[in-house]
Amino acid sequence: MRFKKWFSALVCGLLLLSLVAGCSPGQPLPPIKFLSGDSEVAKKYAMGLQEIVRKGLGIELTLENVDFKTRLQKMRDGDFAIVMAGWAADYNDPMTFLDMWTTNSPYNDVKWSNKQYDDLIAKAKASGDQAERMNLMAQAEKILLEELPIIPIYWPQRNYAEHPWVKGIIRTAIGPGNDWKFAYTEGRPGGDDPQHLNLNLGEEPPDLQSITTTDTVSFDVLNACLEGLVRLGPDGQYKQGSGLAESWTVSEDGTKYTFKLKKGLKWSDGTPLTAHDFEYAWKKAVDPRTASQYNYMLFYIKGAEDVANIQLPDKEKEPAKYKEAEAAIQAAMDKMGVKAVDDLTLEVELVAKNNIFISLTAFPTYFPLNQKAHEKWGDKYATEKDKMLFCGPFVIDQWEHGSKMVLKKNPNYWDAKNVKLEYIQFDMIKDINTPISMYEANQLDAIGVPGDFIPKFQKERPQEFHQMAEAVAWYLECNLNHPVLKDPKFRKALSMAIDRQAYCDNVLRNYSKPATGLTPPSIAGKDATESFHDKYIGNILPATGNPQEAQKLLKESLKQLGYALPKQK
Q1: Which of 11, 231, 311, 365 could form a Cys-Cys staple with 294, CB 3.0–4.6 A?
Q2: CA angle at residue 218 from 149 to 89, to 5 degrees?
Q3: pTM for the whole thing?
Q4: DSSP annotation of 27
Q5: What CA–CA distance (Å, rounded) separates 280 from 267?
Q6: If 0-12 CB within 10 Å is exposed, 13-18 middle and 19+ buried, where does residue 389 land?
Q7: Distance between CA 298 and CA 209 in Å, rounded?
Q8: pLDDT at 506
Q9: What is the torsional sign of CA 484, 485, 486, 488?
Q10: Is 387 helix (H, G, I), strand (E, B) or coil?
Q11: Confidence (pLDDT) at 5
């Protein structure tokens, strides 16, 4: 009898264990904080993705909506689990998207590291053979899409409306998205005098210091108030004489550039603008004490990366070593391939021949910086309109933080006679409906059109509504220090659960396309006739998702990590 009782107890115990095993034993799934913007559009887009993940995986993402500047800082600090982030191409090459995810990249917020990926990117950067570069970068992107430290979601399209009296705004998919130098109005109700535009920035510009700025809102303002050696013209070309350089010559091997600046260039306070302002800015951008996230944009210049890679000890704890590092920085800067020979001559030596270098000099990180003013205002530089200098078509005349900014024509600009606008007024409105109402009341001259309003504009204002392809990717960044997001299998489950096409059609509703890779199709391959994505990558990620595979991967991941499956609601 005692044996039978023991056996019965054993059977019952085994049955109970099997039942428990069937209920996915393990600790509860840790919270997954989803960081996003606080504008109405950003909130809507984040909630749409939250719902897709809830339905597809049974996982609840906890939304945290913050302003643009705070979101950028949280990303840099690693204070997130998942964050919705976007990247706009700085130049027309896949490297602008792929260089971000190398181990030591300042934009690698997720702290992903893959030696094979790093080696492929390094080889691509060192190669002067376009076909070889494309193959190396394609291999790298496929590694990224396999491990998914970031999960591409969609490639947007720009939808905008402008009144018929608005003329001459240059909109581009590469670099700063808008240029108002050539803009004017003709036929505005009530008259065109004074020439002006009323626009909506949508956000407070987070950083107007050219050597540290990283966001598109600040780029647009800086592109209006500063200028590089060249400027993109209405014909889409970077021509000699288009910017602060009058001309340039290139050595036979394509590695040495000699720029001649225009005579009589001035900063907005009337002081001369010289080649020394470019040398100072470029060296300051790669100085590790600046901690610029865009320092790598100058790594095409000989010795620039050597400067940036110098390690800085703690200034307070190791003052002697810090001084040694400062001396090493100066020595490396002295060897860097940029030198102001005189006030009008700038010599630049590159690591290797680079076909996109001239276009890079139109980018904000390459803009000049007045050393005296920069050192005078220090950390306060570019935080107020009277604590920065300007050299572009406009200056900042008014700046009410978080509310309004007014740009005024710069009388000291070299080409002021061809700038028709007297001023541009920017509002900083985050909600969806107000800019639409203001546009319809002629209080805004041009606006971005949110997806919900596209059918209305197509029907009622077809001549004013416009669309253009963007070179932008939106993706989820996954913090690899998070207990579950550290697992590639969990990240792949998350990617598989997202129906990108449904998200574009039902949430965005703005003609965006599902991102089946990272680099957008609008980025060229080895030449302008081919798309890098179409030729070298293809549709690696599913456009419509794969819920069965997602659930399978989720179960495997959580079992391995020791977490219980979430209860399906």
Answers
A1: 365
A2: 45
A3: 0.86
A4: B
A5: 15
A6: buried
A7: 16
A8: 95
A9: positive
A10: coil
A11: 37
Q: Quick one: how many helices (H) and strands (E) in the chain?
A: 18, 21
Which tokens belong to 64?
């945290």
- The DSSP 8-state label assigned to residue 102 in this structure reads S
Q: Each residue of 555-566: pLDDT tens digit?
A: 999 999 999 988
Burial of 268 (0-12, 13-18, 19+ CB in 10 A): buried
Task: Spell out a b/e string for 423-452, using b for 16 or more CB atoms within 10 Å of the CB, else e.
Answer: bbbbbbbbebeebbebbeeeebbbbebbbe
Query: What one-character-per-residue DSSP string does 46-78 give?
Result: HHHHHHHHHHHH-PPEEEEEE-HHHHHHHHHHT
Half-sphere exposure of 12 (CA within 13 A, CB side): 6
- CA distances (Å), origin 327, targets 75, 200, 257, 285, 330: 32, 46, 28, 17, 5
- CB of 301 within 8 A of CB of 349? yes
- Both tokens of 60, joined, read 């609840």
- Angle of helix 40-57 versus helix 547-561 axis, rounded to 10: 80
How far is it, in rounded angstroms, from Cα 164 to Cα 465? 10
Give the neighbor-by-neighbor strand order of the sheet with 404-409. 196-200, 423-427, 404-409, 394-400
Q: Whose structure tokens read 């509310």?
A: 403
Measured between alpha carbons, how far apart are the two ends of the chain, in Å? 46
**Distance separating alpha carbons of residues 29 and 31, to the nearest angstrom:** 7
> With contact defined as beta carbons under 8 Å apart, do 324 and 314 qualify?
no
pLDDT digits (tens, 9 = 90+) for 464-503: 999 998 999 999 999 999 999 999 999 999 999 999 999 9
Count other C-beta atoms under 10 Å from residue 533's C-beta: 24
Helix (H) or strand (E) holding 395: strand 394-400
Q: What is the 3-state secondary structure (H, E, C) of 396-435?
A: EEEEECCCEEEEEECCCCCCHHHCCCCEEEEECCCCCHHH
The residues that bridge with 66 in the sheet, in sequence order, are 37
Euclidean distance between CA atoms 451 and 511, whole angstroms: 8
Residue stretches of the chain with pLDDT short of 50:
1-24
**Angle at Cα 68 formed by Cα 64 and Cα 71, nearest 5°?**
50
Q: Which two tokens stand for residue 225?
A: 């108030």
241 touches 231 (CB < 8 A): no
Say how far apart CA 105 and CA 376 lie, in whole Å: 30
Give the strand pairing for 404-409 and 61-66.
unpaired
| Continuous segment of H or E residues that includes residue 474 | strand 472-478
Dump the DSSP string for 260-312: EEPTT-B-TTSPBP-HHHHHHHHHHHH-TTT--TTGGGGTTBTTHHHHHTPPP
The 10s digit of each residue's pLDDT in 146-158 is 999 999 999 999 9
Tell me whether residue 54 is exposed, middle or buried, using C-beta atoms within 10 angstroms of its C-beta: 0 to 12, 13 to 18, 19 or more.
middle
